[in-house]
Amino acid sequence: MIRRIIAYILFLFGLLTVTFFRKYSGNIIPFPFLFWIIGIAMFIGGWALLRFTPTIKESKENEKIKILINQLIENGEKIIVDLSKCDIKTNNYTEEQSNYGGRNDITTLDIERNIQAWNALGGDSIKNTKIVEVYQSVLVYKNQHDGNIETFISRVINKEKTTLMFKLVDKKETILYIDKNDRSRYYFDLEFLNS
What we know:
With about 200 residues, this protein is an alpha+beta fold.
């Protein structure tokens, strides 16, 4: 939340500075062009910070997830998982992504919208998008508990299958935390994949 506030402040001060010094012709402030460049830098910095900072709703959801994970780690049943015994299920595909604009329209600059429009009008609308490979995998682990076979599925892992297999072979094992009262609530510790 603090990052978003800083982003809005930089964005606003940058906009005001650029607007003021764009037509400044006085002699009181030396080097007005330098202030104009600083204003542009603040504007771009605020815009970039705003674009790449999670929203308040996303931050709250991430906090809730962290609390739930910590509760499972502290109070849950711990099972050592041999990663060589996990099945890897994949779903890889390609998708078209915009070359301009962020996750929401508020952080998309007018210049980006203009570029998209110019490309579309000029017959080069293909320049507005790019084709991206998306890799998605999950680990499936089966465990016997009280005479029943339980199936545990990891979160989606955004890695290509071969890369994932190398990391699993390197790590060898991890821990699965299961809620003792509700075995449908669990956490696969796969933080080693982030490094």
